[in-house]
Design brief:
Distance between the termini of chain B: 58 Å
Number of strands of chain D: 0
Radius of gyration of chain B: 22 Å
Shape of chain B: elongated
Order of helices and strands of chain B: HHHHHHHH
CATH architecture of chain B: Up-down Bundle
Number of helices of chain D: 3
Chains: A mainly alpha (558), B mainly alpha (240), C alpha+beta (330), D mainly alpha (117)
Strand content of chain B: under 5%
Number of domains of chain D: 2
Number of strands of chain B: 0
CATH superfamily of chain B: Cytochrome c oxidase, subunit III, four-helix bundle
Oligomer: heterotetramer
Largest interface: A-C, 95 and 90 residues
Distance between the termini of chain D: 73 Å
Helix content of chain D: over 70%
Helix content of chain B: over 70%
Chain lengths: 558, 240, 330, 117
């Protein structure tokens, strides 16, 4: 457990393409997921920028109507299936989860590798769909549009299907890992909160994703054979498709936000150097969100022809999600109380999320409300709402988490000042982009519109400028991280002073993670870890020196 | 994977064989859960159409051959029995018996698919298909029905005077029938591959009374395929 | 902004597109009874959400200043849980959301189904135009309705899912093929409003709108009278020209030679048409009739097969009038 | 390390008699369901068929799939799957039944009429 143990580590003990591509090491798979999501983020982000530049002024600026329709579809599909869903669970989760549990690997390393390969195959299929006619259905694939358009829906649908199975296998792996691989002494309530969040996420992944699988297969069956279950021309019911689709896709929103909440719990506690406030409430609220997330999908169907009775039930259930979400936020803020707060990039991201999730979560009150949703459904208000949740909360937490675990992944420190600066720029750019969109929505601009009336022009212009700011900031954040690999200072095993187990192994870890079984304790008790020096980072202190009383008690017991 | 490990049956990241067996079996059950949810989408489609058009389902079900369905149920139950027996045999170290029992399971599965093929081809020739299929006799407009089925199909006379909406919904029934049994059939085919793989590993001597997780998990998968058929059979064939 | 070179504007100028007029910062003017109800609930949500948003962020900022590392290097001992506090901040949101749900539901129940005896207008959506059928059989591409009366819209679609949204009335409902959906309004202000398609439906989604005109009752009756009898009151060519506009043909076919989604009608009649399958034909009366009833049987080269049939939307005499009119577009 | 101190099913061997008995019972139940399927049970057909199928499924799960002797948690996983499917089914069926009149009204005007001409 000292710094020179890092001479042989998981990054350099084997080299070559095959040693990465065919690896069974959860850390290597986690990194590959991370690079893949970064690449996909740049792709999806450039689609977003093209969209925003097209909307800079009314009418055609850059692309045609049809190209615009392809762009927003692909932006959604790439960002959701290739970036956000695998971001924290598959990338950070793969790297961190076994380390946090003091385990050598996830329960099923081969399935873990299969899961990454499926992700790649799915990504290739999506790209293939772009090359063979594109996709203009919207990422929601609503029938009968998706069954009648002449774009490459079948290939795209198979791509999403394969990625769905990648997600299922990751979830299956994590659940088995958490159940069966915890070290002796780590009870459920001594697990770090990120593990709870990943557990809740995995439950959603395994329960909901299969339903997306069948919904997508049925779209393919409609297109290839004309089966007609969703086709009104044959007596089918298109609203049934929406039920099947949202039974997955609403819980999927929590696949995006729940792990982000887990990351936030780690960040707030570590950077406030304080025990997380209300551990068990945060843990239970993750499980509560996971379960409730399954019985709220109908709020996507308030105006789609769903019956009034069912809409009312769904509205009531939807409002209950607000309660566990609020509990989490209150507990994070309370964690900062009487802490010792350092403004690292991770902490700045976490604090940004309090603001952004505040907006994203609270605007959910309007969407869940039967009266206001009737006006706001399918407008820019919704667009802004879910970007605040899925980007403002999930992706900001992801980037915060990447900065937090970066020293552990690569054994180097990134440039803190630059990381913090560009995170703040992206935060400002984000607000500039999406706050005006709430106004566009209430004032009457529907979503997925290529063209708009000049009265929305100045709002759209502000939004586009903000988007350019985000684009620049995200690029600079990546650049800062990339540069640190070459120029960064060597990281100590525990640069932040966190008490979770992953900080007990070397930075970067050895191929088998822990040379000796780590000591399991309270994951948020930081009182026995103190800062030594930049080279050695934080080290555990002798409890006797810290508090002689403890030693007395122990010696008398012995 | 660590080659220096003393016990080759134990993967490097597990502490002991019991933990490994437990984890594998747990993972298999979680996978079965996803399979159930995977089928659930089609069951939901079935339930919505059946509850809204009970008369259509009752009518359409008469075109399915109950006897073939019952025989297939029995065949699948037999294969489930031999699969469960194979687990017992591997627990007792009866290597050759395991091979034989898995072989019988595969044969039963092939028999199931053969009967399924008979049913499918019969439906195809008679035009008992979803409404959009070229040969279907359930097209909304009777004039669109292909002349070959009109002249040679045995069931054309029964359906030609139905109300257009009734015809359309009968087409939907067959759409659901083919999707459900088709997806189930794909699972049977995957099961055949799985069983053949297990047979090969068994003959290679991979399994022992201490380590037989793969056979146990394979059998679990096979039982689930059987379980789904137990529900499909009355839901599709036995509507009176 | 000079955008006259853009083809989309040609449609806009041909059909004078009304746009939402704002009333204050947040909303369009309140054009219906439902609008007032919606805005009321919206503002309640605004106060509740605003309070919690400010509370949380103020606390975050305050703590981050007060307990920053340079001020508070060693965290003072403090409790890591407090059940009373947890229960308080569980119960308060619970009560609040129950109340918010209730006020939302209350308004929804009133707004979802029209009261008995409403004036009924049938709405048909198709790519990418709207058609309104009035109780006396008149069809038009503008939604005209009397002020202060309950108006029920019974809607269906001829192709994919569309959605009727009239921002001033704060109502929205999807228009789904193969079934009826309904919504209703009681307009409180005379004037012109936009009806926008809010469910993505393809290429021209953003130009699929209709004009909503609210009259007082006498004016509405007058409009009915003028538009009720086009064929009887006007010459076939004049009636055809009017029909060409009110059946939304103009949305896709210009009369000045500019190709839009579909080919221009200028000099179309009598010309030789080349089709995507390589065949050709001379555009005569039967060709136009076929194009209206089975639009995708013959698709002119360079265009996509996207037109939907007008079967059932045009009477035989109306088709004749349109043909007469198209003969004159030279 | 693991959830509880109960024993995993590793090493539990089922007697051949029990396996064969289960198989025979399943065959008999199949015969029963075919027989009742051919009778007219006045609206209870679906209920009876589903009860028999559920009994068969329970037997398969408990004995063939070893759930009776397995760690209880594996059984809970199975029950969770059934529970969620049930919930999914209930919501969608209630919803589609409630809006069915909108579809039937449309069909009556647009399908049955237009082709009857």
């Amino acid at each position: 457990m000292n710094t020179h143990a890092s001479s042989v580590n998981y990054l350099n003990h084997e080299t070559g393409f095959k040693s990465w591509f065919m690896t069974l090491d959860h850390k290597r798979l986690g990194l590959m997921y991370m690079w893949s999501t970064f690449a996909a983020m740049l792709l999806g982000g450039s689609f977003a920028l093209l969209l925003r530049f097209e909307l800079f002024s009314p009418g055609k600026d850059l692309v045609s109507k049809d190209v615009y329709n392809h762009l927003f579809t692909l932006h959604g599909a790439v960002m959701i299936f290739l970036v956000i869903i695998p971001s924290i669970p598959a990338a950070l989760g793969n790297f961190v989860l076994p380390l946090m549990l003091g385990a050598k690997d996830v329960a099923f390393p081969k399935i873990n590798r299969l899961s990454y390969h499926l992700y790649l195959i799915g990504a290739v299929l999506l790209v293939l769909a772009i090359l063979t006619g594109g996709l203009d259905t919207g990422w929601t694939f609503y029938t009968p549009y998706s069954t009648s358009t002449d774009t490459s829906v079948v290939i795209a649908v198979f791509g999403a299907f394969v990625i769905g199975f990648s997600s299922i296998f990751t979830g299956l792996n994590f659940i088995a890992t958490i159940h069966k691989m915890r070290p002796p002494g780590m009870t459920w309530f001594k697990m770090p909160l990120l593990c709870w969040a990943l557990y809740a996420t995995s439950v959603i992944q395994i329960l909901a994703t299969p339903v997306l699988g069948i919904a997508l297969l049925l779209i393919a069956a409609e297109r290839i054979m004309g089966v007609g279950i969703f086709d009104p021309a044959l007596g089918g019911d298109p609203v049934l498709f929406q039920h099947l689709f949202w039974f997955y896709s609403h819980p999927a929103v929590y696949v995006m936000i729940l792990p982000a909440m887990g990351v936030l719990s780690e960040l707030f506690s570590t950077y406030s150097r304080k025990h997380i406030f209300g551990y068990s409430f945060i843990a239970y609220s993750s499980i509560a969100i996971a379960i409730v997330s399954f019985i709220v999908w109908g709020h996507h169907l308030y105006v789609s022809g769903q019956s009034a009775l069912v809409s009312i039930i769904f509205s009531a259930l939807t409002y209950t999600v607000a309660i566990p979400s609020a509990i989490k936020v209150f507990n994070w803020v309370a964690t900062m109380y009487k802490g010792s707060i350092s403004f690292t990039t991770g902490m700045v991201s976490a604090m940004s999320v309090i603001w952004l999730f505040g907006i994203g979560g609270l605007t959910g009150l309007w969407m869940a409300n039967l009266s206001t949703d009737m006006h706001l459904h399918d407008t820019y208000f919704v667009v802004s709402h879910f970007h605040f949740v899925m980007v403002g909360s999930a992706l900001f937490s992801y980037l915060g988490g990447v900065h937090h675990w970066w020293p552990k992944m690569f054994g180097v420190m990134y440039d803190e000042a630059k990381g913090r600066f560009w995170t703040i720029v992206s935060f400002l750019g984000f607000n500039l982009t999406f706050l005006p969109q709430f106004l566009m929505g209430t004032r009457g601009m529907p979503r997925r519109y290529f063209d708009y009336h000049p009265q929305y022009e100045y709002l759209n212009k502000i939004s586009t400028i903000g988007a350019a700011m985000i684009g620049l900031a995200v690029f600079m954040i990546f650049w800062n991280l990339w540069r640190s690999l070459k120029t960064g200072k060597k990281a100590s095993p525990n640069p932040w002073g966190a008490a979770t187990l992953e900080w007990q192994c070397a930075s970067p870890p050895t191929p088998h993670n822990f040379d000796e079984a780590p000591a399991v304790g309270d994951p948020y008790d930081m009182s026995l870890i103190q800062f030594k020096s930049d080279e050695e980072g934080y080290l555990p202190i002798n409890p006797c020196e810290h508090d002689p009383l403890i030693c007395k008690v122990e010696s008398t017991e012995a | 994977m660590s080659s220096d490990h003393h016990d080759s049956k134990l993967a490097h990241h597990f502490d002991d064989l019991e933990q490994q067996f437990d984890a594998n079996k747990f993972g298999m059950w979680v996978f079965l859960l996803t399979e159930i949810l995977f089928f659930s989408g089609l069951f939901v489609a079935y339930a919505t159409y059946r509850s809204n058009h009970p008369d259509v389902f009752q009518y359409a079900s008469q075109f399915l051959d109950t006897n073939l369905g019952a025989v297939n149920t029995a065949v699948l139950l037999l294969s489930s029995f031999t699969a469960a027996w194979a687990v017992r045999a591997v627990q007792l170290g009866q290597k050759n018996l395991v091979t034989t029992l898995l072989g019988i399971t595969v044969l039963c599965a092939c028999g199931f698919m053969a009967i399924k093929y008979m049913e499918y081809s019969h439906k195809y020739h008679e035009g008992l298909l979803w409404g959009n299929a070229e040969h279907s006799i359930f097209k909304e407009n009777t004039a669109d029905v292909a002349s070959s089925v009109r002249e040679h199909g045995h069931h054309w006379g029964d359906v030609k005077d139905l109300d257009p909406e009734f015809r359309r919904q009968t087409g939907i029934f067959f759409g659901i029938y083919f999707c459900l049994t088709g997806l189930h059939g794909i699972h049977v085919l995957l099961g055949i591959i799985l069983m053949l793989w297990l047979m090969r590993r068994n003959m290679r001597g991979d399994f022992s009374p201490e380590k037989y997780d793969a056979v146990d998990c394979g059998a679990l998968y096979w039982h689930l395929v059987d379980l789904i058929w137990i529900f499909l059979f009355p839901l599709l064939y036995l509507i009176s | 902004m000079n955008l006259s070179f853009l083809p989309y504007l040609l449609t806009a100028t041909q059909q004078e597109r009304p746009e939402t007029t704002l009333d204050g910062f947040l909303f369009p003017v309140q054009g219906s009874e439902a609008a007032a109800q919606h805005d009321h609930v919206f503002m309640i949500l605004m106060y509740v959400a605003g309070f919690f948003f400010l509370l949380i962020n103020a606390a975050t900022v305050y703590f981050s200043i007060k307990y920053r590392k340079s001020k508070s290097p060693e965290p003072p001992k403090s409790s890591s849980h407090n059940n009373t506090l947890e229960i308080v901040w569980t119960i308060i949101p619970t009560v609040l959301v129950a109340w918010l749900f209730y006020i939302g539901m209350d308004g929804y129940v009133q707004r979802r189904y029209a009261p008995e005896g409403s004036y009924e207008i049938k709405v048909t959506g198709q790519k990418w135009s709207w058609n309104f059928t009035y109780p006396n059989g008149i069809q038009h591409n503008e939604l005209h309705a009397p002020m202060g009366e309950n108006v029920r819209l019974i809607m269906d679609s001829r192709d994919v899912i569309h959605s009727v949204w009239i921002p001033e009335f704060r109502i929205k409902m999807d228009v789904v093929p193969g079934r009826y959906t309904e919504t209703w309004f009681n307009a409180t202000r005379a004037g012109e409003y936009p009806l926008k398609c809010a469910e993505y439906c393809g290429t021209e989604h953003s130009s699929m709108y209709a004009k909503v005109v609210i009259h007082d009752r006498p004016e509405f009756d007058q409009w009915m009278l003028e538009n009720g009898n086009l064929l009887a009151d006007l010459s076939p060519v004049e009636a055809g020209e009017k029909l060409f506009s009110i059946k939304s043909c103009v949305a896709c076919h210009s009369t000045n030679g500019t190709p839009l989604v579909g080919p221009s009608m200028k000099n179309m009649f009598g010309s030789e048409r080349k089709f995507t399958d390589g065949t050709t034909a001379v555009a005569d009366e039967n060709y136009i009739r076929e194009s209206l009833l089975e639009p995708n049987a013959k698709v002119v080269e360079g265009f996509a097969p996207v037109m939907t049939t007008f079967q059932g939307l045009l009477k035989a005499e109306e088709m004749d009038a349109i043909i007469e009119y198209l003969k004159t577009v030279q | 390390m693991s959830d509880s101190h109960d024993h995993s099913s590793a090493g539990h061997v089922l007697s051949l008699k029990m396996l064969a008995g289960t198989f025979v019972a399943l065959l008999l139940l199949t015969a029963l369901t075919v027989a009742t399927g051919k009778m007219d049970l006045h609206g209870f057909d679906l209920g009876v068929a589903m009860i028999i199928a559920t009994i068969k499924a329970t037997i398969v799960a408990l004995i063939f799939m070893h759930l009776k002797w397995d760690r209880p948690f594996n059984g809970y996983i199975f029950l969770v799957a059934i529970l969620f499917v049930g919930m999914f089914l209930a919501y969608v069926v209630v919803d589609t039944n409630t809006y069915q009149n909108d579809i039937k009204g449309w069909t009556k005007e647009n399908i049955s009429n237009s082709t009857a001409e």
